[in-house]
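Hello support,

Our group uses your service weekly, and this is the first time we've seen a run hang past the timeout. The protein is Signal peptidase I. I'm not sure whether the cause is the sequence or the server load. Input pasted verbatim:
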Amino acid sequence: MRWFEIALVVLTLSSGIIWLLDRLFLARRRAERAGLLEPKEPVLVDYAKAFFPVLAVVLCLRSFVAEPFRIPSSSMMPTLLIGDFILVNKFAYGLRLPINNRKFLDLGEPARGDVVVFHPPQHPEQDWIKRVVGLPGDTVAYRDDTVYLNGQPLRYDPRGRYVGRGRGADASGAKLLTEQLPGRPHPVLERDDLPYFIQGEGEWTVPAGHYFVMGDNRDNSEDSRFWGFLPEADLRGKAFLIWMHWDGSAGGVDFDRIGSRIP
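Update from on-call engineer: The timeout came from a worker crash unrelated to the input. Re-ran successfully.
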């Protein structure tokens, strides 16, 4: 989505500059040359005046209020499915400039359990989504399919076996559990038919200004267990709503998911 953001900024600035130059200088010159005749407005100016307000509103909404994203992978199943279209709150953790993502107004920090969109350190041009498990200063461990938070194991309530469909059908048969993360219980998937070594076991202490993030699909998520901590500067916003779901291999639109809040 970085290319779209760059294009939107460039088009907004270009149309705004053309509109401003015309208002301050060019329109007056055309009127002087035309005399008593109605001056003809150049096509470029006409387009700039028509599109600048629309582009400016879209840029402001997308940069500072809410931005849409599409879920391309299964790492957050069962919370988020492939084909979910979500909205991300862009001011929950502070206002940031478009393109460079630099914060210029601090409004808050991620809470434990928040589902966040971010630029991963190893792929800064991409947008990823995971759940915040560890806050700065926390010690997080992952052993035997269990998260330990500051030395205490989280409780897992079994909910049977997961039944996937469409592009997520390969997750069928995984254990569906409710992970009792303090303040934010949420569903997770665990596979008992995969090799032990891919689980990403270990123990980590989260440094200041960073977060430990994990996918809810614990055996199919490239997260902090493998690439380290998420810097606060790489945050994009907080995911809060599914506004559309489309999976052509599962019949297209799933109306039951539209309007669902993200736990």
